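Attaching the record inline, Q. Sequence:
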Amino acid sequence: MDVGIVVNPVAGMGGRVGLKGTDGKVAEAIERGAEPRAPARARRMLDRLAAVAPETSVVAAADPMGESTVREAGFDPARVVDPFEGEASASGGAPDPTETTAAHTAAVVRAFAGLEGDGPDDERPADAVDLVLFVGGDGTAADVAGALEGTEVPMLGVPAGVKVYSSVFAVSPEDAAEVAASFSRTERREVMDIDEDAYREGEVHPELRGVAHVPVADDLQSSKQTASGTVESLAEGVAADIRERDGEGVTFVLGPGSTVGAIKDELGFEPSPIGVDVWRDGEVVVRDAAEAEILDALGEENVIVVSPIGGQGFVFGRGNPQVSPAVIRRCDLRIVASRAKLDDVRALRVDTDDPDLDDDLSGWVRVRVGKFETRMMKIV
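Structure, as predicted:
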């Protein structure tokens, strides 16, 4: 099997510093102390691929879009595609990760597919890879799908962005490797993206950006769906429990989403748009907090209140990267969800960037579904 690997080196950098995305915000993310996320997730996928399919032939994008990570995982690329050839770097040396663009991604992917010029060939070229594995978020997925338009070359995403609304991603880096090594058929799936500026203002308007061939496997996540059903009584019950702890110095980290947003409304404050708010002793301590601000606000006793994201069942790792492993390890966990949302998922999932923590969080958990009612769900 021939696999093309391309990494968006700045994907997801805006998440932990509270930017809810990196499109057009790379410089600001760096100023806030953001660190690259995608290369480490690429390495996790490649390490697993080397374990389950060491015979895989890999075609890599030149650095900073994947080559070194591929070699570090033990693969000797059969070919390296350099989209920067002939370009002058602003630094005067090798291309800086912040200088990568959608055009570079598209150029790499078209080379992976054996395409020349601007239009697809009538027949699949002999040097086309069997699968394009990309590491990034929804914006990267849209770039890859656009470059593959008109071809039957399949694509599969290793999730490294903040949003990840499309149904072309594997659940985790390791799952992406498993799917790549074992898939036998593909199906057409939608590539979605949203306007990040509107997203930062609390408006989520998914837009169809393309349709791509994607390997079919149980470990692929589905698109986010809007769950139906009321959360009023749930919010009332949880807010009452939180207020009972007012005056005791308990810090509550309240995650994003409509369900926890209803709890914030019940507590009597305007929730930050799709952000994380910190509450203690009857007042908001930090609004729309980044990871560092959450850590600074934590006390002796801390509780995270979070709801699974959409129809994917992700408790951590999609839409709430501010709630990092460092935050999670210092807090008790409370999961809340409407009955309708849980009916749409078979299990809950976590993807914290810390495999050991993911293992610690796995297992059966109690999920609050009403004013008093709970349901047992398994984190897998």
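The longest strand covers residues 207-215. The chain is about 30% helix and 20% strand.

More tomorrow.
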